[in-house]
Amino acid sequence: MVVQVIRTGATRTVFLVGRYAVKVPSLRGIGLAGRSVRGRMASFAAGLLSNQSEHIWHTFGPWGGRVAPVLCSLLGGIVQVYPRCAPLPEGFTGELPQLDPDPGDGEKPDNYGVLNGVVVRIDYDMD
C-alpha cells in the first residue's frame, strides 16, 4: 500500500493511505515562536483543536453531505481518519458547498475535494 504525505496545512499533516486520508497535528511550528519548542507545541495544539473541531462539526445537520465525514477519531483527535477525496478538477468552475456557519477560507480550492461525485469541504475546522 502506498502512503502519500501532503504537507499543505499550517497545523496538520495529511497522509493519504489507500481509500483514506489521515490527519494528524504537525510539529512544524507556527507564529512568532517559529520552529522553537514553543512554536512546535503551538502548532501541535492548533492541529489537535482543528481535528477535534471537525470531529464535532461533521455531524452538524445543515452541513450534511457538504463536508467530508470523520470516519474515526483516535487518541482524543490526535489521529483522525476521513474518506479520501479526489482533488477538484483543474479549472473547476462549478458551485462550491456553502456552510453556515462559515468556517472561513471558503474560496481556497485546496479546502474542497470530490467524494462519490459530490464536491465537499475537506478542511472545515472552526478555529
Q: What can you see in these coordinates?
A:
By secondary structure, the chain is of the alpha+beta class. It has a single domain (3-121), classed as 2-Layer Sandwich (Phosphorylase Kinase, domain 1), CATH 3.30.200. Helices cover 17% and strands 27% of the residues. It has one helix and eight strands, in the order βββαβββββ. The chain has one helix at residues 37-57, and strands spanning 3-6, 12-17, 20-25, 72-74, 79-83, 86-87, 112-115, 118-121. The strands form two sheets. A five-stranded antiparallel sheet has the order 1-2-3-5-4. It has a three-stranded antiparallel sheet with strand order 6-7-8, with no helix packed on it. Strand 7 and strand 8 (118-121) form a beta hairpin. It is globular and about 40 Å long. The relative contact order is 0.17. The model has no long low-confidence stretch (mean pLDDT 89).
Sheet of most strands = 5 strands, antiparallel
Number of helical elements: 1
Which stretches of 5+ consecutive residues score pLDDT under 50? none
Strand elements, count: 8
Identify the strand order in the major beta sheet: 1-2-3-5-4
Helix content: 10-25%
- CATH architecture level-2 label: 2-Layer Sandwich
Overall form: globular
Task: Provide a compact summary of the structure.
This protein has about 130 residues and is α+β, with helices and mostly antiparallel strands.
